[in-house]
Amino acid sequence: xxxxxxxxxxxxxxxxxxxxxxxxxxxxxxxxxxxxxxxxxxxxxxxxxxxxxxxxxxxxxxxxxxxxxxxxxxxxxxxxxxxxxxxxxxxxxxxxxxxxxxxxxxxxxxxxxxxxxxxxxxxxxxxxxxxxxxxxxxxxxxxxxxxxxxxxxxxxxxxxxxxxxxxxxxxxxxxxxxxxxxxxxxxxxxxxxxxxxxxxxxxxxxxxxxxxxxxxxxxxxxxxxxxxxxxxxxxxxxx
Amino acid sequence: xxxxxxxxxxxxxxxxxxxxxxxxxxxxxxxxxxxxxxxxxxxxxxxxxxxxxxxxxxxxxxxxxxxxxxxxxxxxxxxxxxxxxxxxxxxxxxxxxxxxxxxxxxxxxxxxxxxxxxxxxxxxxxxxxxxxxxxxxxxxxxxxxxxxxxxxxxxxxxxxxxxxxxxxxxxxxxxxxxxxxxxxxxxxxxxxxxxxxxxxxxxxxxxxxxxxxxxxxxxxxxxxxxxxxxxxxxxxxxxxxxxxxxxxxxxxxxxxxxxxxxxxxxxxxxxxxxxxxxxxxxxxxxxxxxxxxxxxxxxxxxxxxxxxx
Lengths: 239, 309
Known about the structure:
By secondary structure, chain A is of the alpha/beta class.
């Protein structure tokens, strides 16, 4: 299988504060790749590195073989990378429809309406009359995550980067979100996500990387990692 | 009529301050001086090239816009790239204001000494027209203000670029992640923030004597309006400008009728007092007031009144 996204020996951080150290990751086409790790391991920084939102000191970030380093964020998005941040993932003062419109900012009007209908197939609640014109800040936690992911899908991306898609959500809603992620993946979108809830993430992923203190210490088949008793005990908080 | 023209002019300048603050997070102290640039663009058009006052507005719009964009590209962007704080950028715009005023003084001297044109303390009154008893500046400034408010309302609510501008004001980084070229939108914002006060400035000398230092007297009124508006929307900025302008003119003339004309020298205390009251009592200005609750409260009071009767 070909790599869609590759990070090779990447060192990055905020100003002079280095967060990622020699990180190498390959996200294969047709895989759900999961990055697990404790709080503060550098998971969000990894995504911000891919998106060019922070300084990359050295190493290469490539999408389909094209180097993303030195490209502005909006160009990287144009190449097919869609990022759904953990926090501040939608525009609070805008309505649901306006948020989706910005999600599909790069599309022309006809395509915009078509993709929005496709997104509504996955998240029908957002289409409801009482939701579509609602100010986004008035949505519940689960609805906010749905809106954020829907905004990510509006770009019709090759690669969807999901940062802690179930962060702060009740287990029942988290499971529903993962069902949606699988649905998105089956429709042909490559998914790379970070997740603190290791068990549910590894159950749903194909390939996994363990990120600790800004370094990728272990990687392999997601289900195999989940079986590793040392990792379960030490990093996943599972017995 | 004078008060409405003054309020229209201050509105356009306050819109500029509000636009740069709400969309690019820059508190631009040079906004009122863009107005003086507009004054001198129109002055040059009228006195040197023989172009009428109102056709000269097109040139003011363009030159003001270019200066706005230049401010972004040559001053704000390099400072932001170096990690300058909001406060440092604000001080840089103060410095820019001083430099622009100095350049305008040099230009006025050049006109005076080289071209023998009286370039200080002039008015454009002779270049205005009258229609059905209304001064041209009253009609034109009102039409321009209403057109700007309508156009920007439609832009912000009906177009993708307008929604993107609102999104950029709330979260520029998230906007970039949607594929929005925030640099292009910033340039657009800065163009408007330069062109709006420049047009307003061109209209100012019709009623008021002007010189290169005019912005020093307008600046406090402009900032008072923006602070009262709440720095968030152009509609609140306009409302703030109308309140401050009317208060400044009517309150001062009322007080001068009681205490004498010496009060006129202290007219800038009105916007200063409004700034103080706003910052102390409702720092988010008109934008931050709980209008819905206030309306509900008023509704409740009405119901109570009916019950009592």
